[in-house]
Amino acid sequence: MRISKLLIVSVLTLAMAGLGSSVNAASSPSSGSTVDIKSNVLGEKSFTGLIIKGHTYVDLDGFVRCLPFQINSKALSFQSETKTFKVLNEDFAMPTPELEFKVGSETFQHDGESFRMNSPVLLIQNRIYFPLKDVVSVYDIHVSYDSQTKTVQVSKE
Hints:
Layout: H1 2-27, E1 33-39, E2 45-52, E3 55-59, H2 60-65, E4 76-79, E5 84-87, E6 99-102, E7 107-110, E8 113-116, E9 122-124, E10 127-131, H3 132-136, E11 141-146, E12 151-156
Parallel strand pairs: 1-12
Antiparallel strand pairs: 1-2, 2-3, 3-10, 4-5, 5-6, 6-7, 7-8, 9-10, 11-12
């Protein structure tokens, strides 16, 4: 009886340790930290992003704040089975390019053309994160780091 209790406690301890490390990895990705981002692409906007492995990532809200066009919320689609995020262009009042991203992929589609990124699209705690510079560079948008204010600046070139 004593051995089985010890075995159960050991298994539970190991399981909790494994669960704790996977939760920590999801909540604070390897060397991930927050960074303030200021975008003046379509008006002045400030928000927070993540720095992960030296790359600035933004969630969907930050992503749309850095694009040179507005996106109709009806044009957004996420397919959980394939982990694919799409911006559709289906004759909405605000025409937008078709975009397609797949979690884990280092490429994305823009109006049917494939573009390579230096880091993959991530899914962290059920939120999709886009590598900022890789995506917005398609639109000639400049991303830089201001070391004095410790902010990432996003601006139309």
